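Objective 1b. Sequence-to-structure analysis of Dienelactone hydrolase.
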Amino acid sequence: MTDADALPELGRWQRTMVSDGTLAVECLERGDGPGVILLPEIPGIVPSTIALGDLLVDHGFTVVMPSLFGVPGRRPGVVGQVAAVARLCIMAEFRAFSLDLRGQVTDFLRLVAGDLAERTPGRGVGIIGMCFTGGFAIATAVTTDEIRAAVVSQPAAPFPVSRSRARSVGVPGEALERYAASRPDSAPCVLGLRFTQDARSGDARMVALERHLGRAATLVRLPSGADSSDGTPKGAHSVLTGAVREDPPNRAFKERGRMIEFLRARLAPAEASDAPA
């Protein structure tokens, strides 16, 4: 895709190649305020991801979106989505999920978080992972002092080919417990989100986060399918993007707003003024 083919929305974002010496990734950045790393879900930085990034910017955050797969702004077909999954699967980080080890993506994201913390006015930075990148968000958070808030939405990796993998978020339980105990305050520092009927993001991972993080986590299960009173279908998956309905507002819309408040409470300087509603 050429620059001429790019979505107009991308023109507002600064695009820079960032490398830690092992991994080189194009990162899109926009905004002025506390820093938030927004990790795209499969198939990449598509219009719905850009819209979420723009919303965070409108609410007073500096947002960095690493393009871990796909072409920013392009909505690929089935072949493109398969290619995106294939790229993830060959990364050492993705393979390491089954062994609860860190890998090259987490190391790269730690570099991004440290740089963003130095350049932005917040009390640290936040990170949002969705679907396949949910595990990257929590793995980065537990190894990075600069990250004060992690959002894990519909975590779907590693693939649930066994009971242990179905409840794994790619981080050993002991590491999660140390992370929870090391926080300087008692406020929750992890927000987890999933739909109750989402087969791609099973509840076992939420249960594991509850068990190991305790009060350090706020975990929200949004009703879907037969559980829903607002028409959210059984197949709903993307809590912060595709499933959001603004008029009339559904539960996903409300939880997206609460997610923004969570980030603001954890990151904003004490003297920060209220962001737009």
